[in-house]
Structures are given as structure tokens and as C-alpha cells.
UniProtKB/TrEMBL annotation:
It comes from Nepenthes gracilis. This is Formin-like protein 18. Residues 208-226 have a biased composition (Low complexity). Residues 201-236 are annotated as: Disordered. Coiled coil: none annotated. Signal peptide: none annotated. It comes from the Eukaryota. It holds the Pfam family DUF1005. Residues 227-236 have a biased composition (Basic and acidic residues).
């Protein structure tokens, strides 16, 4: 399998120094006791917002003991690179534009609460970034209207680096048992087939036509990852999808282990009582748990699909949280596992800033809950609990009522064999099917999801 070229553009290591006036004006918001933030904009990409830490003017930054963090990440495919490189008489040189504010993010009573401190532009030349890392800026920049008399200083790091990925696309909706193609530019090559079916919930062991499971041991570990929660007529359970290679051998699977049940007095799956999928990989003639995906329906104006993914190390029921996202049920979105993002940052397709949806209609919090918030030269080496680093995977799905053919991107460094890629494909299928599993119970599902026959051996 040959990967597709991608470039990761990161903005990080943010800090702000503002000199303290001898007689500060009462109307001026000073960042030493008020929050600071910035808005980061790259042409053709959604605006991203990041918190900017304030440091005293006498301090240096960064120092050797300070954790460096990523504030924003833009993922650029080849088409994005071509569009950004296209010359136009109406457009000047490509720049990353950043506006720095003091005060709180978001409007208060309809009025913006942030006070603009200054704006900066960082010129970008992305030619060659597909094959080598490029540093565009690393250091301090003077900002503010009073730059000549009492300048404020803004610190940032802007760089681009190669981030090749394997790209896969379902040829149909997962519940229709489609083929999965690898995409390389204009080329589409079949690499997997999917088999959607209904697992017999009375038999907790997972079965497949080419992989026999140990029924005795299967009951033990399977029951530790979910519960039956019987509620006839008001639950969705038993869904299973198996990914096969072109020889017909099963190489990954996803199956509901905790039914999707409507909360008492409502017709929705709540965050406090989510349904869950187990993502499985073959091992010694049986299935081995690899990860768990929880999903629920968010309340409020956003009305989104909430997803949380965690790894399951060494058959342990206690997982390692890798990502949490909210996808728009109307527009769909991209579920992202990116271990270079921070809780205050974002990416080109989703953001974790509470209460707003980005380009894909989703928001994301993709740093591990138990990790430092960075990766690579941003300090990820301090987190020894997981082999995954940087961009891991993304799965783009459509909203409710739309034909969804999920597109899956997987970082090259995380694929060493066919089973590795297949596990992420199974995870993407589970995310897509969760859009239906979390559909309001007052709405009907399509016929492919309403069958009642058992999972055939």
C-alpha cells in the first residue's frame, strides 16, 4: 500500500508578555489577571481559537522545564496544497494570520468580550513541505498599537512537516456490507470487504465464517466490556461488522457490547448512559479486544453525536482515553484521533472549543486524558503509556438521513500490517453506525438495521 502525501502545519508554544504601566488605566484589560486568547486563520480553512498564556515581562520563554504545547493544527492534503499554492492577481503571498485578544473568548450579552491587542502575519512557503520539515517562525514578535513606546510581545512557533497517510473509503454505507477501497490520487483499489450482521445477543462470543473463537474464554472477557441492559422495544443491540481482506480472512471487527438504550423519560441515548462498541483484532484463532468506542446523543442546540474512543491494553477493562468528539447529526463530521492537539487547540476540521461547530460540524477534544498535551518536540515523549503519536486517524461520516460512505485516513507510522489498517476501518464503521444507533427512538431506522435474525456462523 502506498500512502498519500499530507502536510501538518502546527502553531504552538504561545505566550504573551505585556509591560506593566506605572499608572495603568482602569479601562485597560491587563492579561496578568484576565485571560488572553488568539484567533488563527489560514486561507480556505476554518478559524481556530486558542488560549494564550501570560508570562511576566522579566521571564524568558520557553525554558527547559516548561511543557511546549500545540495551539492549532492544519492538516493539508495534496489538493489543499495545490489550492494554497495557486497564484491569483487578487491574492497576495500566503500568510498565517493571528489576532491576539485580552479578555474572555466568546460574546457576552451579544457584545464581544475580547479586546484586540494586535495582529500579526507569518509568511508561508509550503513548497517542499511534503518531503521535509520547514520552520517558518520560532520566537517573539512585537504586537500592539503602542509597539514603539511600550511593546507587547507575542511568542509562537509555526512549522510544517510531512505527514503521509493511508486513505480508505467505503463504497457504500457500512450496514450494506460494502467494499473498502484504498485511495491514491485518482486511483481506487479494493483492499477490504465488510460484512454487517446481527450477533446473537444470547451468545456473548463473537463468531465469523473464517475465525473460530474460544467460546469458553469468550464469555469471560466479553462480559467485562459491556452489559445487556435488557429493555425490549427501546434499545438497539447486536449489530456487528466484520472486515475481511481480499482473500476472505477476517482481519478486524466491531460489535455492540453495551446496547444503545433511551434514557428514562426520553427518546435519546444520554451521555451518562452511552452505548458502546468493542473493536476487535484476530489473535491466535480468536478475537482480541483492541479498543472501545462509546457513543451518545448530545442535548441542547448543538444536537450532536458524542463519541469517545479508548485503547484496551492487555485485555484490561480499564482503557486509555485517546479521543472525544462531538459530530453534527445534521451535517456529519470528522472523528479525529490526533495526539498532537491540545485541549486548548484544534485542527483544520474540528475544534474543541465548547459550544461551536467548525467546518465539518463537529468539535473535538483529542488529547489523551492521561497524557501531557503535546507530541514530538512538543513534549509527547513524557507520556510512555501508548505507542500512538501525532496524527493517528480520522473518519469522516455524513449526518442523519444522508448516504454515508466513510472516508478513513490513517497515519503511516501506525500501519505495520493489514490488520492495523483494518482495525481503523472497523472503528470508522462503528462511528458511522453510531449515528444511527443514537438516532432518536421516536424515529425509525432503515430496514438494514431492523432485522432480528441471529448472527450466522
Amino acid at each position: 500500500m502506498e500512502p498519500c502525501p499530507f502536510v501538518r502545519l502546527t502553531v504552538g508554544n504561545l505566550a504573551l508578555k505585556v509591560p506593566v504601566a506605572s499608572k495603568p488605566a482602569r479601562t485597560v484589560v491587563h492579561p496578568s489577571f484576565s485571560p488572553c486568547f488568539c484567533k488563527i486563520k489560514l486561507k480556505n480553512f476554518p478559524l481556530q481559537t486558542a488560549v494564550v498564556p501570560y508570562i511576566p515581562p522579566e521571564n524568558n520563554f520557553p525554558d527547559g522545564g516548561q511543557l511546549q504545547s500545540v495551539a492549532a493544527t492544519f492538516h493539508l492534503c495534496k489538493d489543499d496544497m495545490d489550492k494554497l499554492a495557486a497564484k491569483s492577481i487578487f491574492a497576495g503571498k500566503l500568510c498565517l494570520k493571528i489576532a491576539i485578544y485580552t479578555g474572555r473568548t466568546g460574546p457576552m450579552c451579544g457584545v464581544s468580550s475580547g479586546r484586540l491587542l494586535g495582529k500579526i502575519s507569518v509568511p508561508l512557503d509550503l513548497s517542499g513541505a511534503e518531503s521535509r520539515a520547514v520552520m517558518f517562525h520560532n520566537g517573539w514578535i512585537t504586537v500592539g498599537k503602542e509597539a514603539k513606546t511600550s511593546p507587547a510581545e507575542f511568542h509562537l512557533n509555526v512549522k510544517a512537516e510531512p505527514d503521509p497517510r493511508f486513505v480508505f473509503q467505503f463504497d457504500g454505507e457500512p450496514e450494506c456490507s460494502p467494499q473498502v477501497f484504498q485511495i491514491q490520487g485518482n486511483l481506487r483499489q479494493p483492499v477490504f470487504t465488510c460484512n454487517f450482521s446481527f450477533r446473537n445477543t444470547g451468545d456473548r462470543s463473537q463468531r465469523s465464517r473464517s475465525l473460530q473463537s474460544d467460546q469458553g474464554s469468550g464469555r469471560g472477557w466479553w462480559s467485562s466490556f459491556g452489559s445487556e441492559r435488557e429493555r425490549p422495544g427501546n434499545e438497539r443491540k447486536g449489530w456487528s461488522i466484520t472486515v475481511h481482506d481480499l482473500s476472505g480472512s477476517p482481519v478486524a471487527a466491531a460489535s455492540i457490547v453495551t446496547p444503545f438504550v433511551a434514557s428514562p423519560g426520553s427518546d435519546r441515548v444520554s451521555r451518562s448512559n452511552p452505548g458502546s462498541w468493542l473493536i476487535l483484532r484476530p489473535c491466535d484463532g480468536t478475537w482480541k479486544p483492541w479498543g472501545r468506542l462509546e457513543a451518545w446523543r448530545e442535548r441542547g442546540s448543538s444536537d450532536g453525536l458524542g463519541c469517545r474512543f479508548e485503547l484496551i491494553p492487555d485485555m484490561s477493562a480499564a482503557g486509555i482515553n485517546l479521543a472525544e468528539s462531538i459530530l453534527s447529526t445534521a451535517k456529519g463530521g470528522k472523528f479525529l484521533v490526533d495526539l498532537a492537539s491540545t485541549s486548548g487547540g484544534g485542527n483544520s476540521n474540528s475544534t474543541n472549543n465548547s459550544g461551536r461547530f467548525a467546518q465539518n460540524g463537529g468539535k473535538s477534544c483529542s488529547s489523551p486524558a492521561c497524557s501531557p498535551r503535546g507530541s514530538g518536540d512538543y513534549g509527547f515523549g513524557l507520556w510512555p503509556y501508548c505507542a500512538y503519536r501525532g496524527f493517528v486517524m480520522s473518519a469522516r461520516v455524513e449526518g442523519e438521513g444522508k448516504c454515508s460512505k466513510p472516508t478513513v485516513e490513517v497515519g503511516v507510522q501506525h500501519v505495520n500490517c493489514t490488520e492495523d489498517a483494518a482495525a481503523f476501518v472497523a472503528l470508522a464503521a462503528a462511528v458511522d453506525l453510531s449515528m444511527d444507533a443514537c438516532r432518536l427512538f421516536s424515529h425509525k431506522l432503515r430496514k438494514e438495521l431492523c432485522q432480528t435474525h441471529d448472527f450466522a456462523p
